[in-house]
Amino acid sequence: MAANQLWRWRGLTLQAEERYGTLWAPNRPEALVSLQQQGITALTLRRCTVRAAYWQTNWRCEIIEQLATLLHAGLTLSDGLEMLARQHPIAQWQALLGTLSQRLAEGVSLSDGLRQWPEAFPPLYLAMIRTGEITGKLDICCRALAQQQKSQQAMTQKVKKALRYPCIILLLAIAVVVAMLGFVLPEFTAIYRTFNTPLPVLTQVVMNMADAVKLHYGLIALFLTLPFLPGIILKNNPRWQRLQARVALSLPVMGNLVRGQMLSHIFTVLSLTQSAGIAFLKGLETVEETVTQPLWREVISRLHHDISQGSPIWQAMENSQVFTPLCIQLVRTGEASGALDQMLQNLSDYHSEKTHQLAENLTSLLEPMLLVVTGAIIGTLVVAMYLPIFHLGDAISGAG
Question: Where are the transmembrane segments (predicted)?
Fold first, then answer.
């Protein structure tokens, strides 16, 4: 797909009917040849911009779910893709679905057709659709995949919201404090210093802080942004990403949140692949392909290696030291009873529900705490500013 370009065309059919649409082609001549093969004479052909933001989970989930509905209703796969292409509002998805429909008409399987579009369809989609093609249950696999992706996306958004909220509030509080110390308090300082009267200790301390902010605002800004610089500079460095993951897992509350989210994703994919008839080791390979964090990819890779060497699944999980005792116990029970797929589903549901609840509890707990802290800081500054006003009357009387 990286070599392809998106083209919007308008042309005439052999019956002189005007048509328009979009297609993928490496260059203009290839696009013209593709239109000629469809019996269309191009009148206009221009290249369009491809937006990476449109290759989002919600779009592909919607397409897969709609495709499952059309297949369940009795439509062929090619007709279903063509119908989805006609009604989709985004040009690059229209062209993609139309291309898939043409490839299917040429005898190419859907999983092989999706393999050429890794930005739009991650490996999990390929594995599930390939399994659906093998088992003859493509509509069921597509619907289960769409539900899993929607649930995972909702949980990811909730976790990000729970972690993002306190950071935003703290940054706003810091910005307000710096603005008051750097711009508001100096004006009050100029007024108070015209009177020859001692200031309260709190006011004097705050004024000294305001003077320091005014003199060293550059260093203070650098100090505040310094903790974020490594994350910006080294965000694509695997070692830095591993360090971030280890630090996040070691934190008391955030660690449980991050661990729960990753375990939910791992067991959801494993449960999905197991229910679709994919072998456990192959399911682990699918999990590794869908995990982007280097630390967790290493965990899954080590897990795959230990199991392929003959270790029980529960023993390999215990050796990794990232799975909870509940995970190990239920997997061990599932291996012994032959109900591993059911245990994986139970673990997926448990970690998903627990992470949702933890995210909600974290948000509801942090909101009042941050409001109290922010109110206390700003309130202290306000009191420090207006406290000398009560003594100005005595100072003015003494001066008169």
Answer: 165-185, 215-234, 369-390
User: In the predicted model, what is the mean pLDDT of the chain?
Assistant: 83
Pair of tokens at residue 100: 């898939």
Terminal CA-CA length for the chain: 84
Nearest alpha carbon to residue 63 among 82, 38, 50: 82
Residue 197 scores a pLDDT above 70? no
In angstroms, rounded to a whole number, what is the distance separating the alpha carbons of residues 86 and 38?
A: 16
**Which pLDDT score, from 0 to 100, does residue 395 have?**
53
Rounded Cα distance, 324 and 256, in Å: 10
Residue 315 banded pLDDT, cuts 50, 70, 90: very high
Per DSSP, 27 falls in state S
> Which long-range contacts (C-beta less than 8 Å, at least 24 apart) are formed by 384-391?
384/200, 384/202, 384/203, 384/205, 384/206, 385/184, 385/185, 385/188, 385/203, 385/206, 387/200, 387/202, 387/203, 388/192, 388/197, 388/199, 388/200, 388/203, 391/197, 391/200
